[in-house]
Amino acid sequence: MASYYHQDHVRVPSGASIFYEVRNEGEPAMVLCDGLGCDGFAWKYLKPLLERRHRVLHWNYRGHGQSGMPSDPTDVGVAQACDDLRRVLDAAKVEKAVIFGHSMGVQVALEFQRLHPQRVVGLVLLCGSYGKPLDTFHDTTLLKRALPLMRTVVEKFPLFTARFNRLVMSTETVVELAISLELNRALLKKDDLEPYFQHMARMDPVVFLRTLQSLAAHTTRDHLPDIRIPTLVVGGEQDHFTPAHLSREMAELIPDATLLMVKGGSHTAPLESPEAIGHAVEVFLASLPAKQAKQAKAPRKPRRAAGAKR
Question: Which carries the bigger pLDDT value, residue 180 or residue 89?
Answer without folding.
Answer: 89
